[in-house]
Design brief:
Blueprint (H helix, E strand, L loop, with lengths): L5 E3 L6 E3 L3 E6 L5 E4 L7 E6 L4 H7 L2 H6 L5 H16 L1
Bound molecules: zinc ion.
């Protein structure tokens, strides 16, 4: 039996398979980036790839809450870009 690790979305709190979530990571140096590989070291936060969660995360700056620190607009711009590219598929 294969164990599927579930992670919860920081917006809707639903637990999902990692493949359905976008991973955002705070690296050891404090920089917060979108982790396209899912393997970057650091503290991860997850947002659903589909639906409105990414948009809501950007609008409500949900990552600030997840990481308990204000993040730069750059992070949210990246998230918005990622959202648009996924939406375009
Ligand atoms: Zn979600």
């Amino acid at each position: 039996m294969k164990h599927i690790p579930l992670r919860s979305c920081i917006v809707c709190r639903r637990q999902k398979d990692k493949s359905e979530l976008l991973r955002i990571v705070r690296q050891p140096d404090g920089a917060v980036v979108i982790d396209a590989t899912g393997k970057a070291a650091g503290r991860g936060a997850y947002v659903c790839k589909s639906g409105d969660c990414m948009q809501t995360a950007v609008k409500k700056r949900a990552l600030n809450r997840a990481y308990k620190q204000p993040l730069s607009d750059e992070v949210y711009k990246e998230l918005e870009k990622a959202y648009e590219s996924i939406d375009a598929d």
